[in-house]
Amino acid sequence: MARERIGFIGLGNMGQHMAANLAEAGYPLICYDIAGTEERAPQGAEIAGSITQIAGSADFAILSVASQQAVTDITEEIAMANNRSVSIVVDTSTIGSKTAREAEERLGAAGVTYIDSAVAGASGGQGIGPAAAKAAALTFIVAGKTEAVEQVRPALEKMGSKLFHVGEEPGQAQAVKLINNFLIGTVMTATSEAMNYGLSQNLDMKSILDVINVSSGANVATSYVFPTCIEPETYDVGATVEILVKDVRVYVDEVSNGNLPNAVGSVVNKIWEDMGKEMPGEDFTRIFPFIRDGGEG
């Protein structure tokens, strides 16, 4: 049986690797990126000139974009397209539960099923962000109608190592992803502070990490980010500070709107916003020198 034709929208640091893995698995692709498609698309993929072209050419579409507004604009264009062939939109972006529910409502009114399918990096040393995307080691956190999820599952499993169908309601996967990224933001700030304390005691970073990573304080910062990107001072996880600034802010906004406890969240949010202002465009792993040099206070 011929494989479904996938429209892939967004070929940035994550999307270009995800699309490449689909192409390698033999899926026919038609791709579009507002910043330039041809140089980012996998070899052999068809190049689309617009979202509307994808809406009329693919069986389902996968989105991997950086902002809430981009998802709003793309889903509006798909919903308005004439002669539409796309019946399912799988959104791997991190946009928050409110934007995901709005996208579902917008597409649902046009007869298109929306699947909230936020992605996270892998545990166990397989990397986070682009490294996990390149290795097809992403974790897919999926919320949407079971029948539609099962239809796209084979394609998602070519891009990731784990898939969790957490609920039927789009927005639920976004909530899990926001929790995940808030925790990444929290452990990165806490580990940076803790490492600076350890260094002040004339300990070396590797010795500290060796102990912590077989002890109860181990986390993704100590097990992967610090030994891979911070101890060697490469600062190259491949995701900018703006990514965590946005994700932590959306988490804090949704928690605040729900009148839920937010004491830690408000502090972590301020630290990342301060870094974003002082070090725009930098890899988020530079939170360590930012805190070391007094930027948090």
Describe the structure.
With 297 residues, the protein is of the alpha/beta class. The chain contains twelve helices and eight strands. Helix 3 links the parallel strand 4 (60-63) and strand 5. It is globular and about 65 Å long.
Fold blueprint:
Elements lengths: L5 E4 L5 H10 L4 E4 L13 E2 L3 H5 L4 E4 L4 H13 L7 E4 L5 H12 L4 E8 L9 H5 L3 E6 L2 H12 L2 E8 L4 H29 L4 H8 L7 H11 L10 H17 L5 H16 L8 H6 L5
What's the average pLDDT?
95
Task: Briefly note the structural class of the backbone.
Answer: alpha/beta
Helical proportion, percent range: 40-55%
Count of individual beta strands? 8
Give the overall shape. globular
Percent range for β-strand residues: 5-15%
Core attributes:
alpha/beta; eight-stranded mixed β-sheet; 8 strands; globular; 13% strand
